[in-house]
Amino acid sequence: MTTSSEFIALAQGLLQQCQALHQQGIAALAQACQTPRGLSAERLDQHQLLAYDIAWTSAELLAAQTALCEVASAPDSLDAELALVFTVEVITAVMPRLDMLCLELSLDASSLQTLQSSAAWADLRRAAGSEAALARAGQRLQASQGEIGEVHLDASIRLVQETFQRFGQEVVAPMAEHIHREDLTIPETLLQPLREMGVFGLSVPEAYGGSGTGSEDDNLIMVAVTEALSQASLGAAGSLITRPEILCRALQAGGTEAQKAHWLPRLAQGQPLCAIAMTEPDHGSDVASLTLRADRVDGGWRLTGAKTWCTFAGKAGVLMVVARTDPDRSLGHKGLSLLLVEKPSTEDHAFRVDQPEGGVLTGRAIPTLGYRGMHSYDLSFENWWVPDSHVIGEASGLGKGFYFNMTGMVGGRMQTAARACGVMRAALLAAQRYTQDRKVFGQPLTHYTLTQAKLARMAARFVGCRLLTYQTARTLEEGGSLASSLVKLLACRSAELVTREALQLHGGMGYAEETAVSRYFVDARVLSIFEGAEEILALKVIARGLLEQAWRSTAASISTQAPASAAHSAAQREPA
Amino acid sequence: MTTSSEFIALAQGLLQQCQALHQQGIAALAQACQTPRGLSAERLDQHQLLAYDIAWTSAELLAAQTALCEVASAPDSLDAELALVFTVEVITAVMPRLDMLCLELSLDASSLQTLQSSAAWADLRRAAGSEAALARAGQRLQASQGEIGEVHLDASIRLVQETFQRFGQEVVAPMAEHIHREDLTIPETLLQPLREMGVFGLSVPEAYGGSGTGSEDDNLIMVAVTEALSQASLGAAGSLITRPEILCRALQAGGTEAQKAHWLPRLAQGQPLCAIAMTEPDHGSDVASLTLRADRVDGGWRLTGAKTWCTFAGKAGVLMVVARTDPDRSLGHKGLSLLLVEKPSTEDHAFRVDQPEGGVLTGRAIPTLGYRGMHSYDLSFENWWVPDSHVIGEASGLGKGFYFNMTGMVGGRMQTAARACGVMRAALLAAQRYTQDRKVFGQPLTHYTLTQAKLARMAARFVGCRLLTYQTARTLEEGGSLASSLVKLLACRSAELVTREALQLHGGMGYAEETAVSRYFVDARVLSIFEGAEEILALKVIARGLLEQAWRSTAASISTQAPASAAHSAAQREPA
After folding, report:
1. Which positions of A are annotated as active-site residues?
2. Given CB atoms, is A539 within the 8 Å cutoff of chain B?
3. For a Cys-Cys bond, which of A328, A453, B168, B373 suits A134, CB 3.0-4.6 Å?
């Protein structure tokens, strides 16, 4: 007889073994790609598939470790049971990847083989991966009345969360299908109460009219509100905070005092609404190559060029445009600045603005499979006039647009994970309800062990993603940048998988547009594309970050061992 | 240095080892579920997850074995390379399932562990699963001008295939987006040429005005035409043949000579078009519980009840309705008959027909995510009059509806696999083109090894599914019923995976409705739901069939060993 706590400890031990092997793999790949001056871009390119797998393994291991850590204090809870189910899923997925990593990099795979045939792994699978275990977890899920993936939140945050959950279910959800199927713009009847509830001020400091306190609570609230609204609708509410979050962070990172004093209170009130114009038709994820030109003119700049996938650009009254203010293309991302473009707000799918100064801005909403309500626009700027006062940081902000934008992007990724969690939760709940109501072969669908197992796995995945999302929110300001990319990667793909299974459990009804789960499915599909497409995130952010870290520690250890480096040798003699 | 032929032999050997272990698992599960009188339904229900996994493993192993067999004669071809890639994917997916099967059923897993750490498995992965191998396969795919998943077809079949491919690309494809996005009914400008090309007569024997010869060629042609049209559009053309196929097979299986003489020539000409009304709102996959009532009246029947998901019911001039002609519900599927309902053809999304005899039929198209063009209808019959002449088989057809329908369903599954192949091919080609055109970080996407690896895996999956689909068509009439379920299961899920990856490779553009791949993605999602939802197919058809087979062979071997059975003992003494 093994207690739940013992299984958690067992699972943690197995994860540690996987993690150790994974670290060896990362170190070996870094070594395979290293040159005296750093990692070789060419060799990294040859190893993209390994790097991609490393990113996924990192995300999954972190999520499982975090989940086990979170549930350890309540080992008999449903959450603990689901965290164990999730861990079995993770280890099962990770093992073949680690095996391949060993094969490719000629690492000793014997510890993996030992692990695979170990009694511990067999015990854990019997406890949380067998059909009996999954059926039990599914039954317990269906019988449970409470929340799953529960995180500790202070009473004040809990209150905000509940307020938005209620608003989501009572106000947003009933309008969501209509907005989606008619491809409408989010109506003022939704936006106005959200403004009044302070949704746009969450990332704005109190001193500037928002509710941000500068503590980790800001991120927790943002995640909780985003999740709650996304559960009701990704497009009609759940994504509203991402844009002000990015712009407010950029303003705080680089804006002049006058800019902060002017814009932050307005943005906090959602007057104007805002949008971020970064992606270009020929440059999706390749920020350093952006070409939209800002030409220097007396007292300001003239913008010429195209942007695309600018979400909410119609309804927005101000756009943050990433533009090239330095004509020297070789500067890459160091030639970019952030310009604020004011324009009239419109619900139209196409618009044209003519400036008195002669500039023209046209926009066209791109019809999409889902994520409707905000619309993503193609934009074209022709000789569009922007005064110096509208460059974030003014003269001293020139060339720093990339950096100002980055802090917001990290927050945006964490928020996107929260969006994914909201969509997953909605799909899971829909599947739970439907399988209880729908009878097949004389019994409710939920009676069958396959249904129970599917629900258990979906719930386990949701729990794993949710716990990591909130944990990321807690630690974001103390260097959670990698975590925000890892959780974005994992939660978005997980939302695809969970909505796919939820739809499948609905049978034909799941494919009908009248059934909410069909919307969750098409909405979820955008998540792995925007806010860092998964390939770019996996390769350029996550794997690159991990490999550089590994390279630096190798380089450090080499230089500390090198007798030529007296300073380092001295350092080596210090106690650790 | 190992030759391609040797790798194919190596891969076949590994598959055989997996297959042997898999068979042991099936036998052990059958034993765990057996009673003296057969398999225990209750125990089968407890083991649904294992049964589900067994179905997937069966499908994947069969596909890989078939693919290797098909390419063995051209071991240096791109197809052979892709078949090996596919085999690595299959073995990687199958191993953890087999491992779990061993754990659950207390089977000795040592042969699996030996396999996992074998030099053969390492060699095969280096050759066809490593990043270098996948990149090479992807590059070769992108450089290749020819078809992949090539099957041998006679010149006459090839000609038909090419004709429909050309029609698909030149006539259907340009209209597909419009039909999808406007949710239109397939227009006569598409239907009329297809009628003239004989598309509706493919499953009708020559003697009845079709082009069927009664040979395996009929199935090959049907698959080739379905695939070609589905590549252009699943909804606007690729699914047109499924319904006449099911109805014509039912008529041939059970119709009177007069019925065949009346209906087959008309159906062959697509005048009228037809639809199949089987599914009911409360009974999706549970045919034995269907409740739509046919009440006996003088000279015929009165239909009362509802059907749902009746695809093409608006445009159809005749519906094949599965109805309960025997009021004794305990008869289950033995109380069902097939009734032909004539009605006016309409392109409307809602219709109502009032019979002179007082019956009413109403229909409403269910809005769906994709698979548009034919529309699937909710139908309601009120006291609808059907003369005796319209019961398939007339008096002797009563109670045999289930059986008449079954032959068509088996063909329908094979055809659905062909539909999945068409959608996959379209998505793969779109991804191949897009990644060649689209530049990221200064290079076409296809330049990157991750892209190459993704394309190689997508192509490998397509090749695996396609080769099995055509092989199933060749052998369908000699007992390919299980194969048609296996290939339906695998190809449909594969179409989801391939369209997902194809969309992902398009980045944001993939999510735009203006890009064809977004339509492939939502169209593909229906495939695992209709024509046998994957759970039902996996559990009730495939696993059930395999377990019963295993049970019968055990039962046979037990009874042959039993001294009480003199006859069997005698048989046992015969030379094998």
Report:
1. 531
2. yes
3. A453
